[in-house]
Automatic annotation (TrEMBL):
Superkingdom of origin organism: Bacteria
Keywords tagged on the record: Oxidoreductase
Organism: Streptomyces clavifer
Protein name, per record: NAD(P)-dependent dehydrogenase (Short-subunit alcohol dehydrogenase family)
Record's keyword annotation contains Oxidoreductase: yes
Key word Oxidoreductase present: yes
The family this protein is said to belong to: Belongs to the short-chain dehydrogenases/reductases (SDR) family.
Length: 225
């Protein structure tokens, strides 16, 4: 039996790299996609890599078409794309809100649109999006980020309703904070003390895409350190 093909979107980031490793350990064939070609190279030649901008419908559709043409039809999509910014409601600008929504919500929608046709024909597939604890619990000083992640969390529930009849499972993880190298460089130690490692979040994602989680649909899974 051939290995299932898993697409990891945002694979060049700290969480994305950990997810690539976790899924390969689980014997999935991983396709890593990121807009940063240099960040993809760190994953090594044994991981199939596609450099693409997934923030638009056209970019996501083109990237998923390449996955099928170059590797095969994906049965797993893990979306780790995301961006955060600090600031309360009085600091939000139209540009900032647009950035948060486009990357935290838009990419999830466009990736889902792009991958579903590849899963629909065999009638099975698994999608895991990355939301955040701040999207379901009020958090001071992260207004635009929290609202965009709340939309991602609710999108996951809506997608479960829409896609479950097609045999596609959709779930999301809700990290509080992830101790990536980028976050370690800018966040104070007292805040990082509550963070989960990228590997811990990746482990939760690997479980959600596994056969052991076949009965888990529409779940918002906390990973909070």
């Amino acid at each position: 039996m051939s290995a299932r093909i898993a697409v990891v979107a945002g694979a060049g980031g700290g969480l994305g790299r950990a997810v690539v490793s976790a899924l390969r350990t689980a014997n999935l064939r991983v396709v890593a996609i990121d807009h940063n070609e240099e960040a993809l190279r760190v994953l090594g030649p044994e991981v199939h890599q596609i450099a693409a901008d997934l923030s638009t419908p056209e970019g996501a559709k083109s990237a998923l078409a390449r996955v099928e043409a170059e590797v095969g039809a994906p049965s797993v999509l893990v979306n780790t794309i995301g961006v955060y910014t600090f600031g309360g409601v009085m600091t939000i600008t139209p540009e900032l809100l647009r950035q948060q929504v486009d990357l935290n919500v838009g990419a999830a929608i466009w990736l889902t649109q792009a991958v579903v046709p590849h899963m629909q024909q065999p009638g099975e597939g698994v999608i895991v999006h990355t939301a955040a604890e701040a999207g379901v619990e009020p958090t001071d000083g992260l207004t635009a980020y929290s609202v965009s992640k709340a939309a991602t969390a609710h999108l996951t529930r809506v997608l479960d309703v829409e896609l479950r009849p097609l045999g596609i499972r959709v779930n999301a993880v809700l990290p509080r904070l992830i101790a990536t190298e980028a976050n370690k460089a800018v966040l104070p130690p007292e805040l990082l003390a509550t963070a989960s490692t990228p590997e811990a979040v990746a482990g939760a994602i690997a479980l959600l895409v596994s056969e052991e989680a076949a009965a888990v649909h529409g779940a918002l899974v906390p990973v909070n350190g």
